[in-house]
Amino acid sequence: MSLFWIEIKRILHTKSFFLLWIFSLALSALFAWLPTTYAYSQYVNKEGNQVVLKGISSLEYEKRQQKAIQGPVVAQKVKQAVHTYQECLTKYGVSQSYDLPEEIYEKEIMPIAPLLHGVKELFADPKTGMAPSLMEIDLEKLDFYYTLCENRVATILEMEMPHQEEAKNQALALYKQVKKPFLLQPGINSSILDYQNLLGFLLLLICIAFVAPTFSLNYQTKADAVFRSTKYGKKPLAIAKIGATFLMSTLFFLSCTILYLILVNSFFGWQSTQTSIQMVYSIATLANLNVLELQIVFACCSLLALLACLGMTLFLSATYKNTLLCLALAFILALAPTIISMIGSEEVSLWLCTFLPASTISIQASLLYAITDFHFLVLEGFTLWSPFGMIIACLLEIPLFVFLTIYSYCHHQE
């Protein structure tokens, strides 16, 4: 235990660690603010002057305008919203809402816009996937809104996995567990989760850069030879270094993530985070979560991915005495899921991006996007939804890399 606290003190007395921590906290605050910069609204006030709102003031204005539609998303609400949309566009002789004068859009369409989310998707052609315009939708069919939602899930599954019956059954079972009617609290959008993903990935790279020299630097400076000659110089020292690294990295990651979530949810409104993710992402999203729950699940799983990646980095550090080589390899493996998802074939990238340590928190291939997609791992009758695979992989990789690090360090030879 004394070795563990000595390692903690060593990290705490490292100036670069505190500088990185302060920088990361500032980065978290910046990332929490950035999604608000996309908000833009304008309207004509009582005096006839055009008022332009940006940022948080625009978000507050939109929430006031859409207050009447908050609450459960029942079929009658959706039907009335589509009716209002069709009536407005017919009245002004246009076929798309963006052809409306901005003041008309703000007054008549914006108050009901969130209810229109996903409606076109429900009527997409089952063969081509092409969705009709809202003007072409039969209002009477919207009386069966949630039946259409379930049919849409079945259609997607038939298009993407025509011969995988077990995967289709699992997906339909997951969707049946989704709480209905969906809940809508205006003012939220997916950008807050995109920035959480980006922040988590940057925090991962920062942690890797700090952790990479843990063992390899002592190899280079020959200090390790001195440590090995002491009573607790091998396995106990390795365990202490791993434990201290994991603890401080966890505190570092959680402090930045919690700060981000507090700030971004305060900017957008905590009530807005109660919105079902089906009203933010695809209407056919399988997970039974609201936005706040998704934020928390993603943060927890990102922490698991961080520890798995740090375990991998420590293993490389214990194996190679060249710190730059260790750092380069760790960065390559951290970036690998993003690169593979862009250039690899669908099946190969699915498996690799599920089980590589950084996948859960990577860009484009993260758990966040896996939750909102229909990717299933299928092998010889075994079927598993990819987000579950990512979580299981992280839980297995953490102890595996810890063991490999200890073994590699204890058997390292100059």
Give structural notes.
- This protein is elongated.
- It folds into two domains: 2-35 and 187-410, no CATH class; 74-163, no CATH class.
- It is mainly alpha-helical.
- It has 17 helices and six strands.
Characteristic key phrases:
414 residues; two-stranded antiparallel ribbon; two-stranded antiparallel sheet; mainly alpha
In short:
The protein is mainly α and 414 residues long. It is built from 17 helices and six strands. The strands form three sheets. Strands 1-2 form a two-stranded antiparallel ribbon.
What are the SSEs and their pairings?
Layout (H helix, E strand, L loop, with lengths): L1 H11 L2 H19 L6 E5 L5 E5 L1 H10 L5 E2 L2 H18 L9 H8 L9 H4 L22 H16 L4 H12 L6 E2 L6 H21 L1 H9 L1 H6 L6 H34 L22 H29 L3 H21 L2 H10 L11 H5 L4 E4 L2 E4 H25 L4
Antiparallel strand pairs: 1-2, 3-4, 5-6
Helix pairs in contact: 1-12, 2-9, 2-12, 7-8, 9-12, 9-13, 9-14, 10-13, 10-14, 12-13, 12-17, 13-14, 13-17, 14-15, 15-17
Question: In which range does the helix fraction lie?
Answer: 55-70%
Structural class: mainly alpha
* Number of helices, counting only DSSP H or I runs of 4 residues or more: 17
Global outline:
elongated
- Indicate how many domains the architecture comprises: 2
List the helices and strands in order. HHEEHEHHHHHEHHHHHHHHEEH
Major pleated sheet: 2 strands, antiparallel
DSSP strand count: 6
| Portion in strands | 5-15%
- Gyration radius (Cα, Å) is 25 Å
